Model the fold of this input.
Amino acid sequence: MLKNFFDEMHAESGEVREPYETYSAWLHSTQVDELVRCHEQADLIFRRVGITFNVYGADGGVERLIPFDIVPRIISASEWELIERGVIQRVNALNAFLHDIYHDQAILKSGLIPPDLILTNEAFRPEMLGLTLPHHVYSHISGVDIVRVDEETFYVLEDNARTPSGVSYMLENRQAMMRLFPDLFAKHRVAPVSHYPELLLETLSSVAPKGNSQPTIVLLTPGQFNSAYFEHAFLAQEMGIELVEGQDLFVDEGYVYMRTTRGPRRVDVIYRRIDDDFLDPLAFRPDSALGVPGLLAAYRMGNVSICNAVGGGIADDKAIYTYMPDIIKFYLAQEPILKNVPTYNLRRKDDLAYALENMEKLVVKEVHGSGGYGMLVGPASTKKQVAEFKEKVKADPANFIAQPTLSLSTCPTFVDQGIAPRHVDLRPFVLSGRQTKVVPGGLTRVAMEKGSLVVNSSQGGGTKDTWILEGANARTRR
Amino acid sequence: MLGRAADNLYWMARNMERIENMIRLIRTGRTANMLSEAGKQGDNIWEMPLEISGQKELFLKDYGEISGGRVCAFMLSDMNNPVSVKKLLSNARENARATRHFLTSDVWECINRTWLAVKELTYSDIKKQSVDDHLDWMVDRSYMFKGMLSGSMRRGEGLQFSNLGLCVERADHTARLLMVHFSNAEKNTTQMGGLQVRDYYRSMVILNALNAYKAYRETFHSSIELDKIAELMILHKEVPRSLRACVDEIADVLRALNPTASVMKEVYDLQYRLETVQIAQLRRVGLDHFLVDFSKHMDEISLNIQHDFMMVQ
Amino acid sequence: MRIKIRHETHYVLEQAARRAMQYLRLTPRNDRNQRVGNWSISGPEKLTQWLDGFGNVVHFASEHTDHNDLKIVVEGEVETKETNGVLPLDDGLPPGMFMRPTPLIKCDEVLGAFSDELKGIIEKDGELSFLHALMAALADEVTYESGQSTVACSATEVFERKKGVCQDFAHLFIAGCHRQNIPTRYVSGYITNGAGDPASHAWAESYVSGLGWVSFDPANRQCATESYVRLAVAYDYATAAPIIGVRTGGQGEQMNVNVQVDQVQVQS
Done:
């Protein structure tokens, strides 16, 4: 066992933690051969169904399977209750914040956040000024990344208010687990997650323009070579909506239409999985072939809803992240339920000096980076890598933040050597429309390499099914 | 349904059908080769797949001399050949992937699993296994695909556009096959009906490749004659791969999709022509003229389908 | 002053385009210094009017059929008022947002040093004096010459060449102001009599606290007068562009522009 890390299955005393009691007993009574067989079976299922993930680089996009681990991440009802309240609170605060900065900017006037941090930020979109959205919601789908460091403490790592992906794995992992281990599901009361597409559809409908109760909704994908294309197709199918590319849509007299076999058809809500920059070549990047010319006009005229809204990226900018506790207090007059990771904002002189001094202990990230690219994990890096990164930081300090290296909790994971602890995080998916809701579950990402703290799938991370135990089965200890 | 999705389903089906056609051609080629020494005389039987697929030039450039093994390698697993079975399967899978949400998981998994099985296969792998087994297996997969298509898909536009792709491709293939066959046969034969030995074998190849040998025997109860083959494969609507049967099916599918689509006129014209013409008339003007004209018509229909339904930009 | 404007843009293509779409920022803003009357846009097959985030009036124009030429004609009258180049801060746009260094107005060390030479003036005589000095210095340093730059040229590129047209002057001025932390924005519009070709013009506005937005036209070495008509404000040329478009197909484009801006003599 790795010491100094909180393990999801075993308490420090070596005793099995309560949510895992039934599972642990089952695991002990199961032969390794059987696990190997299940592991292979799982691989086969995923390959056959075609749940793949395109990796950039090398030969221009290869389809790969994300490693799936057959040992579930189990969370008790009371732990989940805290997480659920916490993420809903955060997302509500984020939406209030976004509405404010594109309207009255009260938070800037209050002096809580330095105005230039928002106003000169590239993620702040002047295109959104004064545009009022249905229910004042900007981040309709948020994937809040949470890590756990001990029995009581959960930290929010990132809010992912742009176009978070991974929800298809939450759903497919559950499907696979139910096929592989029906007996385990009989022994546990695991909260279901399969109604997520239904909830997503309800959320998207609830933000249709002008209260239209029978809106036409589409999913806008960059196309089949995108890394998350499988997920786009999967969600479109589950919701029974069209999966469109930019070339399938056009704008006419302020409305958006799609080209169908029966002629043009009006589109009311666009669940987009492409970045702001590519939405409308007339308004954003002129070289983009993915978008729809005129879309911004239709959007600002209030004739189409775009989910997540344009300009929401400012809310998950890593420099804004530092202010999340203040943002929650300012808009909701509540104390934050989930903690922020202490963050050094390297645009501040003191923080910069500290970070340069202690970089080998810190995790340093680019402010606008994502997906585990452009970051340094101090303790896992060589002296040379640290030195090189220091130079990068010195050249443009405002572009970086630093955080202490967190002791991410570990969870037993099936690896070549058998069952061994590996670090995990958790991404629950929060839906905001008329109401804010979370499906009891999420995507547990696991760093498959021993000792690694990087769970991103682009960096070789895997996934686990996440079980939220329902109330009666999980007696609380406290 | 999205125009682009319809386009992808249409091409998914066309690609899958083209694969089956190619496999049948190779299979009959192998049988004919074994059948008799006579089969090998004159024109090389292996030229046919190259001519029909329009890739003879590329083959000669990359492989040189024509031989059974080389043609099989080229047509089965060469990714540089734009119409090799492997390449077509990869295209079909990309079409399916782009429209996955319209397909039942049966149909998608059928294509995906076939692709996964073939993806890494080289021709020498296939030879190690047994080429004939591989060909049989591919035909089975094709039937499985079609079975799943008609057995699992909702009776809606998705299925209709797939069916459209199947019959358009089938018509195209039959026409090409007949064209290649008759242009060669007419060069060599002075009098219709009087078959030379090598023409007999070529005719067998045609009937087998079009899966119509049994139909021929049942229809004519007589020996193999070229103009009867032409009559069967052009005008007999009860033979699944005949031009008439394909055009009838195209008309049915399109009528169900939209009876007032502008492409209907073209289709009805062609259908009327096939209903009323007689083989003797076609013989007089030259079968190859008729077939060239038919192919031109089909190309126009295909273009109009794209214009009417797929809003292709 | 009453100003009559007719602005015609004519695109001719050697090879026809199948479709074309444009955003047109060709309608004067209803600002404190001007009132718009009888404004019309014609030419494109379809036109839809909307307001962008900066409060500019934009038209979405589209052609859905094959075309070899496309003519966009705007005309109308604007009544302007002399405000001594100053506009109050009431357009809902926080000055702080006009500090963003977009690629066109990013300042480098050379241009920064040029601006820094004058920064002493800020402490001694205030920002307004600095702005006038910067305008004059740029007008001295850079020569107005068309054909030496394109709309994609950044301020730093233009400063190397020391030659440019009105939008280049505006970009240079904005970059120089940002260097001293003075929020400054880009204005596109028309002018009745100024440097170079008559008509389509661009200048800049800086925010001076206590005063509001003060306009500077370094190409003409003056603050905006009642001869100026404002079409759009934004960060830079790219965000305020009078016409931005995409088309499908089409090749060999030629563009002809004809602008007439005349003062209307009021008869009493």
